[in-house]
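Please, structure for the following, as tokens.
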Amino acid sequence: MDRLLPACARCDLTDPPCQGGSDPAPESCPMVLAPAEIRRSRSAYREDGDLLRLARMASIQEAEGYSGRFGPGPPVPAKPRVLEVCELARKLDVELLGLAFCTGLRMEAALCQDVLEARGFEVASVSCKAGATPKESLGLSDDQKIRPGCFEAMCSPVAQAMVLNAFRTGLNVVVGLCVGHDSIFFRYSDAPVTVLVAKDRLLCHNPAGALHLSGSYYRWLTAAGGRDDG
């Protein structure tokens, strides 16, 4: 591939321009490669009142996630994500929260619903298996199921989103939807969506663990010719 792509993850500037710094932007900076898109993004906030409000409240919530912001030392993380979800919902005047979860994380979803309700919210929760639609309806063969020879309901993030849309949730919270199923849910949800738990079956739902160990125990992830299935 000969085209230059944005590569913010490779940026090693100590005083980057995207954070108000004085270092010149590298050629792979999106501010250099796509200035028109950056300008349009700024216009989007001005032109869409709902977007502006959500972005403003999210930025306020970001700052409030730290303590010591006005002290001599650096800001210190102060809140778990589940509390931040509650606080953002309150800032947005949301009373009914949607909870879209994987049935494999039913326990975590129940604990999440306990927390949300204890903080004064109504909660509509929908499992990924709602609808009991067989996987064969997707064109899967029996040997493409987790347990061949058995009935398996497909995960239906479209059903989850449509049910929550019908009840007019103000903010939807994702707990452990599968890779790809979460993408579909984001697409069909009418309400804004935030993720509380990202599924990782192997790493106890801590996908960052594989990244942190990619130079040691998980180095096969970056090895030349490495297999996608590990």
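The CA atoms of residues 164 and 191 lie 9 Å apart. The chain is about 35% helix and 10% strand.
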